[in-house]
Design a protein that fits this description.
single chain; mainly beta; Immunoglobulin-like; 2 domains; seven-stranded mixed β-barrel; six-stranded antiparallel sheet; 2 helices; 5% helix; elongated
């Protein structure tokens, strides 16, 4: 079968959905293979012979080939579909998951699946540094809704692990938080890594949070933001020092904040 699929995406139901514009050959099968892995999956194209829905739950992490067996011939599946939309990425990340499956289309149209293990993170969609604060808005990814749960923004100074916290607002999976830059400037200059803690974060509970989610931007499919995306700095006078406070992305697309004396040239 040489037909090119015009739809090839992973749904929130953890199935691979494939559609062709014209019917494929009767009896064609879609096969997932990962080397010699015993987890090979096979699904026959049925019904109108234009679509197939193949379950993906339990696939081992790594890259999986998507192939089509037709009349004894085994070929890679081809598609002209990019494999995702940003809305679909957001919807997929809205549920609780410990692994994700993504469609990857090569330049020649060959389809592969990439399965990777994930932990919850706080997807950052808005960063607004002004008026003495840095405001953050976004969504919990891979944790699922947390109705009624308390939330806090947590800043941890790299190397020293000094920790500052502020109340955050959480509505289902949507969060809002604000970081007062004066609070960072009152401490020793540092790079601060940011987290969103959800559940069991009340003062004096002594319990670990239900979710400890790093602030990051990973659902826009634009990796490598460091050096490409920058935010304005805010100047703060603390004692006899003037410090510059600026949010920035790490090489892993995590969001951190630098608080440094002006003129030292550090990130």
């Amino acid at each position: 079968m040489d037909a090119v699929a015009n739809h090839c995406r992973v749904g929130v139901d953890d199935h691979l959905h494939i559609r062709w514009q014209a019917p494929v050959t009767d009896g064609d099968r879609v096969v997932l293979r990962k080397g010699a892995s015993p987890g090979t999956r096979v699904e026959t194209v049925r019904g109108d012979r234009r679509s197939v829905r193949l379950p993906l739950a339990g696939l081992a992490p790594g890259k999986w080939e998507v192939r089509v067996e037709s009349r004894g011939i085994d070929r890679p599946l081809l598609t002209d579909d990019p494999g995702f939309s940003f809305d679909e990425l957001r919807d997929y990340a809205a549920g609780a998951r410990d692994r994700t499956v993504r469609v990857v289309r090569a330049a020649d149209g060959v389809v592969r699946l990439v399965v990777r293990e994930v932990t919850p993170h706080a997807e950052v969609e808005i960063v607004d540094p002004r008026d003495g604060e840095i405001r953050f808005e976004g969504r919990l990814a891979y944790a699922g809704p947390r109705p009624g749960a308390d939330a806090r923004l947590v800043a941890v100074a790299r190397d020293t692990e000094v920790t500052l916290t502020w109340d955050a607002r959480l509505d289902g999976i949507d969060y809002r938080a604000a970081l007062p830059v004066d609070d960072l400037a009152a401490r020793e200059p540092a790079l601060w890594d940011l987290w969103l803690d959800v559940g069991a974060v009340g003062a004096g509970t002594g319990d670990a949070p239900d979710v400890h989610a790093r602030l990051a931007s990973r659902l826009d499919d634009a990796t490598g933001k460091r050096g490409k995306l920058s935010y304005p700095r805010q100047l703060v006078v603390s004692g006899e020092r003037e410090l510059a406070v600026r949010p920035y992305y790490t090489p892993w697309d995590n969001l951190s904040v630098a608080c440094r004396p002006t003129g030292d040239g550090a990130q």
